[in-house]
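Subject: sequence -> structure tokens, single chain

Hey, anyone have a minute? Need the predicted structure for the following. Not urgent.
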Amino acid sequence: MSASSFFDVLSKEACKKNTLLCVGLDPHSKELKENTPEAAKEFCAKLIENTHEYCCCYKPNAAFFECFGASGVEALHQVIALCKEKGVPVLLDAKRGDIGSTSEAYAEAAYKAADADALTASPYMGEDSMEPLMRDSSKGIFILTRTSNPGASDIQSLSVVDECGNRAPLYESVAKLAQK
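Reply:
Had a minute. Here:
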């Protein structure tokens, strides 16, 4: 990606292709020919080859590669490179978020080592945990507010009182904070 921000590039891709399609690259072991990092990479490579003309973004899920150890991380980096070769921006689905120094390492791993253009992040440790992930204005960050898993409401739907004294689900308060 150039010096443009991730969101500028994403917007241009969406307009150029007339789509908002983001393709998730989640190589579940049951969908692979064999449970190896090479098979995970091949699975994703086929998806990329068949969809790059129709999507404005790819979202590889880091966990499906990290479970293979160092060779899986290398496969993830190769998948990201394949996406970039097709000119499609990459949102790394890693849901990172931790204390400042750890978040700095997560940012370096995602943006420099993996060459991702954007990252998913969990904000529940506070703004200081997000700051290192947002430091580079050319990169994007997608902050989790309300997730789709069955247990999400256990925490995310808890009722909280906002600064005006109004009650709202926690995820709405997180979404408002994320807009700042």
